[in-house]
What does this fold into?
Amino acid sequence: MIHPSATGTNRENQGMRDRLVQVIVLVEDLDTVQKVLEGRGFTVAQGGRHPGRGTANLIVAFGQQYLELLAIVDEGEAMASPQGRPVLDALSTRGPGLARWSVEPDDLQATAERVGLPIEHRERVLPRGPTVRWRAVGVDLTWREPWRCAFMTWDDPRLHPARTDVVHPNGARGFARLDVAAPDRSAALDWLGGTVPDRVQLTATANVPGPATLLVDTPTGAVPFDTTGL
It folds into this structure.
């Protein structure tokens, strides 16, 4: 059971605020996507495989946030995995494009208790060897209802995917704004604990809920992230 929040005011009074940390774009071929994004002036890193889930990713890091390009690399493995199957379903029903978003809370345990869901332990093996481990709340639910964010924290801050010292030739330096289409603003605010994270804007929708538009911060202003060709 998901419990609605009545703590939004308290969170603001205590100075607590969840931070937009991740936006996921579903893609079909990682090699093609890496070439396209590098051609557009982004620095792209190999993210590695998610063991047993049939998925792998690329990472575009911005210091405080990161863009994840996620693909199915083993359909059979994804179909057999409780964590891979929601990704496969999302790709087959919605197709490539903006798919999901996550925030990094100040207190993941409190967040889990508030929404009434367990903390899950997840991991990804980097191409160079280390394993990135993180804890998450609500990931599988958010694939089905992508107007909701997932909540994530990383076990080792040194392996946090956003906190990589990279320079993008196009000058990109982070997320300027993420527009999230929510069928019910009140329900979305309850899920978020009463406070919308900085750089997130909830918009109304009649048809397709979830991340709708991502604007990237550049020296010349906010520029829409183009998913064409990904």
In short: The two ends are 36 Å apart (CA to CA). The helical segments are 8-13, 30-39, 75-80, 85-94, 108-115, 139-144, 185-191.
